[in-house]
Design brief:
alpha+beta; 2 helices; 2 domains; Immunoglobulin-like; about 150 residues
């Protein structure tokens, strides 16, 4: 049996409701990674993570922040936590018309794809971007197994 939705023809109220439903559906379709950015719901700070044979790398955008406003933790060899606080802007004189950049405390926790050696992590802060180099833990590196005949 085949079902179709009944739609009254030339009903302006129904057409408006149908258009509204389409807009809401498109809005919820955007709730993926790109949608959270569009709606302002993405995690702060925005992160990029990649790896090579020896290490994992992370970049976090922290515009307007200072290095001493950020804390970095690694637990369990693969849980990275970035904590901090972005202070609100202070307008000495004048009237503020728009406030789109968020402020306040944040915590961003990420499960890394492999275990890292937390004692060898290098962190740099350049132009508002936090850059981490996290060497892989020896247990996470591939090992060649010798085959005996």
């Amino acid at each position: 049996m085949f079902f179709t939705r009944w739609t009254p023809l030339n009903n302006p109220v129904w057409n408006q409701l149908h258009d509204l439903q389409g807009e809401v559906n498109r809005l919820f379709d955007r709730w993926g990674d790109q949608g959270r950015h569009f709606l302002g719901l993405a995690g702060f700070p925005a992160l990029n993570v990649w790896e090579d044979d020896d290490a994992l790398f992370l970049e976090a955008e922290l515009p307007g922040m200072e290095l001493n406003d950020v804390e970095i933790y690694v637990t369990g060899h693969n849980q990275l936590t970035i904590k901090g606080e972005r202070k609100p802007p202070v307008v000495a004189q004048g009237v503020q018309h728009r406030q789109e950049r968020g402020f306040g405390s944040f915590v961003r926790a990420v499960t890394l794809p492999t275990a890292v050696d937390e004692n060898q992590i290098e962190a740099r802060f350049e132009n508002g971007v936090l850059k981490l180099r996290m060497p892989k833990h020896e247990a996470a590196k591939p090992r060649k197994i010798e085959i005996k005949a």
